[in-house]
Amino acid sequence: SGVCNALSLEIKTSPKVRAFVGEQVLLKCSFKSSSPITESLLVDWTYRPLTGGQMETIFHYQSIPHPAAAGKFKDRIAWLGNVANGDASIAILNPVLSDNGTFICSVKNPPDVYHNIPQTVLVVTERGLAFQLTSAALLSILVFLPSILVVIVLLVRMGRKFRVLKEKGKCGYKKSSIEVSDEPEHTDTAGCGGKIKEWCLNCVDTDEEDPY
User: What is the mean pLDDT of residues 37-49?
Assistant: First the structure.
């Protein structure tokens, strides 16, 4: 038992991962080894279809990553791990519905020989609308939409009334200025009439004084 505990390697993955068709998905895998990480460390990712069948190796790592050179995952596996940090994660590029199945991350770091083999179930689906409306969200929209429309209408009416009042104010200002300007004009007219009358009287007086 002491030997098993000394030579243990623990692996952790997500039990279930959801993905959308055509969108890259991350398959996380972390491990903890009781021995120092060396070049002998091995990482293997295998896959079994949802419909069953044989296991298929889709990725292998030993010092450098070795993605599958054939099969359905050819050129669709990206290495995102860092063994020095206990990370053996990969990503599947352009997932499709037929990728649904079980993925197994296996890590070996000699002399660690005892370790668990966790499984990850991948569920790939078609992405629907960008924003799917739930019943609660739909109810909220139906309740608040009329209120928003009423507020918009009131704001529009207030804006129109404000413009009308502003225009009336401008008209009233012009009228008052005209009325003010008319007063001095009337005064000037009266003054001119008085001057003309005075000039006429002077002419009459002159004619009376002239004997010829």
Answer: 94
